[in-house]
Amino acid sequence: MEEKVKYELEFPIHSSPQLLYQYISTPSGLSEWFADNVNSRGEVFTFIWDGAEEVAKLIRKKSGELVKFKWDESGDDTFFEIKIVVDEITKDVSLMITDFTEEDELEEAKMLWENQISDLKQVLGSA
Predict the structure, then answer these.
(1) H or E stretch including 94?
(2) Of residues 69, 81, 79, 18, the one with CA closest to residue 40
(3) Is the pLDDT reported for residue 73 higher than 80?
(4) Cβ atoms within 10 A of the Cβ of 104, count?
(5) What are the residue boundaries of the START-like domain, all occurrences included (predicted)?
(6) pTM of the predicted model, to two decimals?
């Protein structure tokens, strides 16, 4: 199995951290921009895209700040994390994405996140 590479992306978002947190931490919020539908049972989230289901476990959550998921089938120590970062001075809000992918799929993975975040900005009205 090919070693996955870790990458980070930062997206400025014009939104309050409190509102943003609802969109990254709840099934209803995530289903508005991240997947077609999201269900959760406790710490286990089921993400549905075009009828295909992917299951991830919520392994870390910091209220108002971040969520960290681990895909069920990954079998390694990879994860994806969505973190809200607020600049101390300017109060600008950004989303910091940490994820892993195969090296030859890096550009594609980054583009996917860019599209997802673009959808999020439209939902928030900050596009």
Answers:
(1) strand 93-102
(2) 69
(3) no
(4) 9
(5) 1-125
(6) 0.92
Domains assigned to the chain: 4-124 (3.30.530.20)
Q: Do 101 and 109 form a contact (C-beta atoms < 8 A)?
A: yes
d(CA 63, CA 10): 20
The answer to whether the beta carbons of residues 101 and 5 sit under 8 Å apart is yes
- Give phi and psi for 75, each to the nearest 5: 65, 5
Classify residue 78 as exposed, middle or buried by CB count within 10 Å of its CB (0-12, 13-18, 19+). Answer: middle
Burial classification of residue 3, based on how many CB atoms lie within 10 Å of its CB (0-12 exposed, 13-18 middle, 19 or more buried): exposed
Residue type, position 67, single letter: V
Nearest to 74 by CA among 52, 48, 102, 95: 102
Per-residue pLDDT tens over the stretch 34-65: 999 999 999 999 999 998 999 999 999 999 99
